[in-house]
Q: What sequence folds into this?
């Protein structure tokens, strides 16, 4: 799902209001002066129904005019109108009324797989990926005004079933289909039937489905996640008229557990990946170093099958699974939220944020949105995937001091760096040549201005190896 650009502007008048029985508010609180929506009926030939739902945080076919409970994509626009892709059409919800668009009006197929926003020179537009092709629709405050469709029959789009669409900062439209990676620049189509894996070997996208596309703006690239070939990093060079890129992230070169990647969310350099074997965190461009992995076995998450992942406005990580939601808060704490705690459905398909920072979750059983971090605390071990066992940290958790044991086979230069969970460098307590085969280094964390309580990543970089470990700092 394409990330939504967020702002701190005052909430718009049709922003949904949170029920009062959920009192914990983390992030932006909702302050709604009024909910005044003037509707002009029958602007299009779409079905337009007036129906104020009974619940204003959970929506299903039983309490709203959603055409289906299978929610596959969500985009919330700048005036907090939600555009909701289902397997039975595209719904528009303005906080009070529902409008549904189907193949009778603008869509090529009722299975809507993804939605991306573009502010073009003409108007606000949404790109709608369906099983029958691609639709770009102009819209205003009353809904869709006009639309253009693209299929292999009327354009150079390769592949009829469109799984993903992303519009980058330069207005390039990246389109994943079951057959190819497509790029639509202005009115020109470019396509690739194949990609290159981490070993440089060619593979067909038809054999390894594109599962998500996100922009890596720092390098003017798109990150393409695949089912079986890891993460393809690609761009397009107009001067040579060709796709370009860096080596893919994948096994065995990247320290990841699987090449089946389901989703990606990127904020600056920070990358979070959903996979079929846990949550993967990677805060740098380099392939080999600093991969942190969260699994059922090491971190007690709900499931290793991660179906959606999203970085919210407060830098909390929402990981949807087939058994509920895991949330890694910005202080390093783990939360979980399932049907047992009130989640509308445990199988998560998509997660996004609106301009106010509210998080919208699409499931196989409807939609739920939050203006706080829900759930209960999850007890987790302080484990991460390690390159080797030449380093030990203790005590862990620590209060004011902890010790690092470093083993080396020969004299060499060693640098120890400590980062917070946002990837910010906090301290470099060791930076010297070490001659002893086993050395101990005591780290002072008593300065709570730098070392606030939470989780920190310790990087030990030697000439022979690099290792990452996780330490929890207490009050």
A:
């Amino acid at each position: 799902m394409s990330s939504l650009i967020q702002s701190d502007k005052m909430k718009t008048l049709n922003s949904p209001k949170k029920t009062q029985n959920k009192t914990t508010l983390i992030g932006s609180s909702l302050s709604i002066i009024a909910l005044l929506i003037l509707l002009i009926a029958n602007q299009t030939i779409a079905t337009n129904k007036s129906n104020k739902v009974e619940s204003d945080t959970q929506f299903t076919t039983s309490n709203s005019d959603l055409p289906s409970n299978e929610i596959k994509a969500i985009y919330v626009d700048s005036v907090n109108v939600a555009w909701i892709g289902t397997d039975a059409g595209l719904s528009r919800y303005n906080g009070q009324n529902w409008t549904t668009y189907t193949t009778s009006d603008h869509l090529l197929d009722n299975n809507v797989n993804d939605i991306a926003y573009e502010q073009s020179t003409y108007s606000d537009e949404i790109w709608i990926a369906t099983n029958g092709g691609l639709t770009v629709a102009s819209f205003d405050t009353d809904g869709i005004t006009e639309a253009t469709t693209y299929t292999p029959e009327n354009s150079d789009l390769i592949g009829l079933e469109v799984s993903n669409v992303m519009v980058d900062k330069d207005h390039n439209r990246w389109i994943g289909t079951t057959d190819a990676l497509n790029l639509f620049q202005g009115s020109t189509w470019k396509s690739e039937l194949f990609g290159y894996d981490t070993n440089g070997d060619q593979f067909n996208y038809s054999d390894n489905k594109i599962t998500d596309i996100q922009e890596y703006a720092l390098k003017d690239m798109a990150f393409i996640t695949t089912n079986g070939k890891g993460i393809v990093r690609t761009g397009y060079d107009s001067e040579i008229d060709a796709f370009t890129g860096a080596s893919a992230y994948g096994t065995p070169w990247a320290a990841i557990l699987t090449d089946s990647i389901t989703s990606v969310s990127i904020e600056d350099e920070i990358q979070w990946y959903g996979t079929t074997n846990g949550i993967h965190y990677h805060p740098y461009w380099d392939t080999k170093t600093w991969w942190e992995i969260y699994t059922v076995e090491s971190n007690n998450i709900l499931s290793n099958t991660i179906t959606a992942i999203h970085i919210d406005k407060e830098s909390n990580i929402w990981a949807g699974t087939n058994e509920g939601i895991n949330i890694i808060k910005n202080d390093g704490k783990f939360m979980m939220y399932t049907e047992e705690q009130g989640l509308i459905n445990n199988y998560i398909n998509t997660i996004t944020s609106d301009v106010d920072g509210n998080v919208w979750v699409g499931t196989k059983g409807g939609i739920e949105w939050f203006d706080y971090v829900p759930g209960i605390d999850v007890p987790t071990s302080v484990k991460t995937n390690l390159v080797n066992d030449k380093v030990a940290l203790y005590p862990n958790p620590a209060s004011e001091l902890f010790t690092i044991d470093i083993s080396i086979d020969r004299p060499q230069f060693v640098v120890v760096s400590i980062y917070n969970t946002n990837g910010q460098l906090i301290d470099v307590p060791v930076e010297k040549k070490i001659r002893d085969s086993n050395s101990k280094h005591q780290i002072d964390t008593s300065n709570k201005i730098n070392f606030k309580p939470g989780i920190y990543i310790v990087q030990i970089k030697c000439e022979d190896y690099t290792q990452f470990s996780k330490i929890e700092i207490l009050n």
Observations:
- Residues 301 and 432 are 38 Å apart (CA to CA).
- The chain has two domains: 47-377, 391-473.
- DSSP finds one helix and 39 strands in the chain.
